[in-house]
Amino acid sequence: MTTHWTLPRILVGAVLLNTLIGPLLADLVIPDIADLHLHNPAWPPHAKFHDAQYIGMGTLIGAIGLVVLWQRTGNLRAQFFLAAGLGSVTWLAMFGALLFPGTAAQDPEHAADAAKVIGMDPQLFIALVMLLALAVAIVVERTRAPIRG
User: Fold this and answer.
1) Exposed (0-12), middle (13-18) or buried (19+): which is 2, by Cβ within 10 Å?
2) Are 6 and 144 in contact (CB under 8 A)?
3) What angle do CA 100, 116, 88 make, to 5 degrees?
4) Looking at per-residue confidence, does 110 or 13 come out higher?
5) For residue 146, what pLDDT is reported?
C-alpha cells in the first residue's frame, strides 16, 4: 500500500490551505495589513468589493482544491495536477494584475514606506514562494511512479 500524502501532495495542500485562509487573514483580520485593505477608509466601496471578491475566490479555490487533493479514489495523478492548477490561480493572478493599466502592488500613500522582501512587495514574494512550492511539487510528482487508488 502506498502513502497518499506524499511530499508533492503535502506541498500542494499547504499552498491550497494558504490560498484558503491567507487572503482572509491578510485583507480582513490582521489589523496592520487589513488597515491597508478592507479597513482602509481611503478605499472606495468598489475597491473594497473587489478585495472581498478576491478573498471569496481564494477561499473557494482553496477549499475546492483541498477536496480534490483529498480524494482517494479515481485518477489520483489527474486530481493532483488539477489541485496544483487550482492552487496556482490566485498567486499567478497577482503578477498578472500588475500588467493592467493603473495597478500597483501598493497604494501610493504607502509605497514609500512599504516593507520589501528581497526587493519585492510582501504579497508578491509570498506569491512567488507559493508558485515555487507548486513547481517543486509538480516536478517531484512527475518523477514518481503513479499512486494506486
Assistant:
1) exposed
2) yes
3) 50
4) 13
5) 64
Cell numbers standing for residue 100? 493592467
What would the pLDDT profile of 82-110 be if each residue is shown by its tens digit? 999 999 999 999 999 999 999 988 887 76
Q: CB–CB of 47/90 below 8 Å?
A: no
Pull the grid cell for residue 18: 494558504
| DSSP letters for 80-129 | HHHHHHHHHHHHHHHHHHTTSTT--SS-HHHHTT---BTTB-HHHHHHHH
Against a cut of 0.85, is the pTM above it? yes
pLDDT bucket at 1, cuts 50 / 70 / 90: very low
Burial 42-72 (b: 16+ CB within 10 A, else e): ebeeeeeeebeebbeebbebbebbbebbeee
Q: 512587495: which residue's cell?
A: 121
C-beta separation of 121 from 107 below 8 A: no
